[in-house]
């Protein structure tokens, strides 16, 4: 029995060896590509190398070069030279992008290469990865302006991406810090105060409002001296309130281009009674009086006054945007239907957006 068993083993081994050595190369090639897809790169590599030699000067050559490049880079991430051949030969856009990606990651001038990739393939997920990489490089170099620039691109172009979610709040802080500085910006101009001018007359002339001028120029009073240069914001804004996640976002519109500015946490109607629709701010008040249901006036400063330090009414009677003395009520459904923010945030918004600003409230 033992002799028969060993005889059968030898026969089976010989048969398998015969199949392997006489298997058509095209089938070996297909299996090697499958191995590569499954991550068994070292087993696939010898066949893929043979394929590149065997298929040279044939229509299958570009495909063979692609799979060999993919396999080599998987084994050694810095082994990317063959991807240039893939880019030169392939007519498949996905393969070309993949080649550009690996060459970019290993470029000596990586920042420039990443910026070129982003420009050429703005909708590709790898572009979002490179935007974050450029921002990290800028942060390492303490280049705040560059970091803000690339984060702005990320949030404006890929607002729903996970990458944008990681940076949106820090970007908002950078945007307002830049806005409320004396640094010139594309959407600002400078007005030199002339003798006899007041903030109110300058605001009217420049089509802005006093609070904006004071906030941007760090003015604590309305008194100004002739000769002083005031930074003036020439852009428009709109507010976007998303009830589903209790957030308010400010967007800037300047010369037909819309940019995200900042996101804030808000409280909305606890019985889902915040009005949906597109409205305009039709009233702005500092230190507002609150009128309780029934008409009783509650003065500013009273613990019963629910409006905080600012009130911005909208053209939906009884509703608006206001502050609160209770920070815990922000970020949840907590109000009687209005949109509430912590006082610091509502004061900032009050100084950014003018009377007539559009407010889009939605789920």
Structure characterization notes:
It is a single chain. By secondary structure, this protein is α+β, with helices and mostly antiparallel strands. It folds into four domains: 19-105, Serine Threonine Protein Phosphatase 5, Tetratricopeptide repeat, CATH 1.25.40; 127-179, no CATH class; 188-233, Roll (Membrane-bound Lytic Murein Transglycosylase D, Chain A); 236-362, L,D-transpeptidase catalytic domain-like (Beta Barrel). The protein is 46% helix and 19% strand. It is built from 13 helices and 14 strands. It has helices at 2-22, 25-37, 41-54, 61-75, 82-89, 93-105, 110-120, 125-140, 144-157, 162-179, 199-206, 210-216, 343-352; strands at residues 188-192, 229-233, 236-242, 247-254, 257-265, 268-269, 277-286, 290-291, 297-298, 310-314, 320-322, 333-335, 339-340, 358-362. It has an eight-stranded mixed β-sheet. It has a two-stranded antiparallel ribbon with strand order 1-2. The longest helix has 21 residues, at 2-22. The chain is elongated. The mean pLDDT is 92.
What structural keywords apply?
two-stranded antiparallel sheet; 46% helix; 14 strands; 363 residues; Serine Threonine Protein Phosphatase 5, Tetratricopeptide repeat; alpha+beta; Membrane-bound Lytic Murein Transglycosylase D, Chain A; 4 domains
